[in-house]
Specification:
The chain has 426 residues and is mostly beta strands. The protein is 5% helix and 44% strand. The protein has helices at 16-19, 290-305; strands at residues 4-11, 32-39, 42-49, 56-65, 79-84, 88-93, 98-103, 108-112, 114-115, 121-122, 125-130, 136-140, 145-149, 155-160, 173-174, 180-185, 197-203, 206-207, 223-230, 233-240, 247-251, 257-261, 266-270, 276-281, 327-330, 335-346, 362-372, 377-382, 398-400, 403-409, 415-423. The strands form seven sheets. An eight-stranded mixed sheet has the order 25-26-27-28-4-31-30-29. A seven-stranded mixed sheet has the order 1-2-3-24-23-22-21, with no helix packed on it. Strands 5-6-7-8 form a four-stranded antiparallel sheet, with no helix packed on it. It starts with a strand and ends with a strand.
Length: 426
């Protein structure tokens, strides 16, 4: 189908507040310029320069929950989910396990749920979210169920799903009509060696409708298959090559599916009505420096050798530059966040020996770009380096309007939950 070029669209900075949105890592003083193209039934919005916000937004810290030593409700362990209402912060701590409830200043108010297999109890909780009606949704992968609570902790209902998958970092999504989606196998076949993960609508008896699947881009992710023998059983463990491109996706509470391949700064937005918008933007690849690459290679080798001591590197080497983006996330305000790996940051306090405990020698400066679901580039957020968006056990932050709740780790390794205020430019 021929490409039809539409007019160049420019939004001046004065519309930034009215248009809403969140930031990225570029400066823009004149406004947002983009081209809109209709191609193959898809609307392609390509940002040429600037941003709707007209500058870089800031995250201003306003409250901290979590201490190294102190009262038990403030000593956080393995936090796997955070969410918030207008006056409450909810923290799912899987090490207890329970949902800790705090006010906006960080004062502990109560706990919801506890360890066990009974109603309202958790065995291996994996995510936490809040629905449009204010109810809490706790996904427990070990018990293959989602437990629903009123904000005061009253048990409401339980939704079942298929067991066998343990997926951290993929939260439950509740759309405005109350449909509850959780991650699972899009297909229901018996082939466990090759299957697709998507978002499945859940009801009291299990699946309650058609799944929402990310598009299949057909890429081959670079990595290693390692044979592991444990307790008389043979398993195949998969390890990825650091910084190689991957398929990334997230589901918005609006029901839209956002997906892309991280070798290009381009994202497909599949709307619930069947329409597709493509958001694109120019980007400059960030080099992967030699010392940084060498450390990641040694660290990956040491990790694999813990399971297979005789293993040697037998696949592709690390790429020369970092991918266009590392993760995608959708917030509660109709925006999606692009989490990017910036330049490497070296920690001189680390141990160069990957087998020794301690902080990593290399981390990535976090870069955050924000778009709306119409494909417009809203702007960049100046992200605190304490928000380690590239941690393997990264917990998606809760974001709604100008409220951001994120899990961080301080220089002593203390787990904390912080409340930030998103301050737009101008």
């Amino acid at each position: 189908m021929p490409t039809r070029m539409c007019s160049l669209v420019t939004f001046v900075a004065l519309c930034a507040i009215a248009c809403g949105g969140v930031p990225a890592s570029e400066d823009s003083s004149a406004g947002w310029e983009a081209t809109t193209t209709e191609e193959g039934g898809r609307t392609v919005v390509r940002t040429i320069s600037g941003s709707v916000w007209g500058g870089v937004a800031e995250l201003v810290e306003e409250a901290v929950i979590g201490v190294e030593v102190g009262e038990e409700p403030y000593m956080l362990g393995r936090v796997v989910g955070v969410t918030a209402s207008t006056d409450r912060i909810y923290v799912l701590d899987a090490s207890i396990p329970t949902v800790r409830v705090y006010d906006m200043a960080g004062e502990h108010l109560q706990d919801i749920g506890g360890a066990g297999d009974g109603p309202g109890e958790f065995r291996q909780p994996a995510s936490l979210n809040i629905g449009p009606e204010g109810r809490l949704y706790v996904r427990d992968d070990s018990q293959a169920r989602i437990t629903i609570f009123e904000p005061d902790g009253t048990l409401v209902d339980t939704l079942q799903f298929e067991g066998g998958l343990f997926l951290l970092g993929v939260p439950v999504v509740i759309t405005p009509d109350g449909t509850v989606y959780s991650p699972g196998r899009v297909d229901e076949g018996e082939d466990f060696s090759n299957f697709q993960i998507g978002m499945i609508p859940r009801g009291p008896e299990g699946r309650s409708g058609d799944p929402v699947a990310p598009p299949d881009f057909g890429i081959e992710e670079e990595g290693f298959e390692v044979t592991v023998r444990m307790r008389g059983m043979v398993n195949i463990a998969l390890f990825k090559v650091p910084y190689w491109p991957e398929e990334e996706w997230t589901m918005s509470p609006t029901g839209a599916m956002i997906a892309g391949v991280s070798d290009d700064y381009s994202f497909e937005i599949h709307h619930p009505d069947g329409g597709v918008t493509v958001a694109e933007k120019d980007w400059q690849p960030i080099p992967l420096e030699a010392d940084e690459a060498a450390w990641h290679r040694e660290n990956t080798t040491a990790e694999i050798r813990e399971m297979s001591p005789e293993w040697v590197w037998n696949g592709p080497d690390l790429p020369a530059s970092k991918p266009a983006f590392a993760r995608l996330g959708a917030d509660e305000s109709g925006r999606f966040w692009v989490l990017r790996a910036g330049s490497g940051i070296y920690n001189p306090e680390c141990s160069e020996d990957p087998e020794e405990d301690g902080p990593p020698c290399w981390t990535d400066k976090p870069l955050l770009d924000v778009f709306d679901l119409e494909g417009r580039f809203l702007g960049s957020v100046n992200a605190p380096e304490e928000i380690d968006i590239f941690d393997d056990f990264f917990v998606p932050p809760f974001i709604k309007d100008d409220l951001v709740i994120a899990v961080v780790e301080d220089e002593l390794g203390t787990i904390q939950v912080k409340r930030y205020h998103l301050v737009l430019p101008n």
